[in-house]
Design brief:
single chain; 289 residues; mainly alpha; Four Helix Bundle (Hemerythrin (Met), subunit A); 2 strands; globular
Length: 289
């Protein structure tokens, strides 16, 4: 009987089945591609929600169209955070996200607002809608430039974020989905569109929630607030969403009033203290979606 050679102990050594064994490096590359593809899929879902909102708004189904903007806001928050956590942020992702945001948070809320309540105003109505679209596009362009330059305060947005601005008409339409068909009744709808449009291109600071640390040792308070918000939205969605949208809009003015009140109170601002080179604070990273 002839002695047969022992099978190779190492799978990397030549053998009859070596072509059928996937290499570990290939498995890592496939997993890496899957992770990098996820933010793009979420951005595509964001863009689809904006398109669906336009389709249903043109049909006159406002109660169905308005929630798609809310879904787009959730997807927009997820794609940027997942891209940062997985280290897959890229220039293509930033530009793709901005183009999707123009559709979901510029064109979609403008068409929804026009079909719902601005159409009785004629040219004034479609002009207000176009102002909202152009303001959202300029807001997103400025955000990208500020992200490349860096050096800003991550705790605040300069100007109202486009998702929050789109939430104002979306929440209003969802709360009152019957539509406006009279000229005088449609006039208040101008404020619903023009005020967020103007705030997007101003330099008023709005609070950012990107600096919330999700890995804090005791996040009980944050979890309770999130759970309470979900319960309120599930039980009273129309009222709660309107309150949330307009509260965030008013928060910037409340912050400005508090800042001026503190300055008038005579509280001197602390002077900056020079630090040695080894203790200097590192430069801030630019906010990339």
């Amino acid at each position: 009987m002839l002695d047969r050679p022992d099978p190779p102990s190492n799978p990397r050594e030549p053998g009859p089945l070596r072509f059928f064994r996937p290499e570990p490096d290939r498995r890592r590359q496939r997993a890496r591609r899957g992770v990098s593809l996820l933010p793009g899929l979420l951005t595509m879902g964001n863009m689809f929600c904006g398109y669906a909102c336009v389709v249903y708004a043109m049909r006159g189904e406002y109660e169905t169209a308005a929630p798609f903007i809310g879904f787009a806001i959730v997807l927009d928050m997820l794609d940027g955070r997942i891209a940062r956590l997985t280290g897959t942020a890229s220039d293509f992702g930033v530009e793709f996200d901005s183009l999707a945001d123009v559709i979901s948070f510029g064109i979609a809320p403008a068409i929804l607002s026009f079909a719902w309540g601005l159409s009785p105003l004629g040219r004034m109505g479609w002009a207000a809608g176009f102002l909202f679209v152009s303001s959202a596009a300029m807001r997103l362009a400025r955000f990208n430039i500020q992200g490349r330059v860096g050096g800003g305060d991550k705790r605040y947005f300069v100007g109202m974020p486009s998702p929050a601005a789109a939430a104002v008409p979306a929440a209003t339409v969802y709360a009152f989905p019957y539509g406006l068909h009279d000229y005088w009744a449609a006039l208040p709808a101008l404020a619903m569109v023009l005020i967020p449009a103007v705030l997007m291109v101003t330099t008023i600071r709005f609070r950012s929630f990107k600096t919330i640390d999700l890995q804090m040792p005791r996040p009980y308070t944050v979890l309770l607030l999130v759970a309470g918000s979900i319960i309120l939205i599930a039980t009273h969605p129309r009222v709660v969403l309107v309150v949330m949208a307009y509260s965030y809009l008013a928060s910037a003015f409340v912050g400005m009033a508090l800042t001026r009140f503190r300055r008038k109170g005579g509280r001197p601002e602390p002077e900056p203290v020079d630090r040695p080179d080894h203790d200097a604070a590192p430069p801030r990273e630019s906010a990339v979606r």
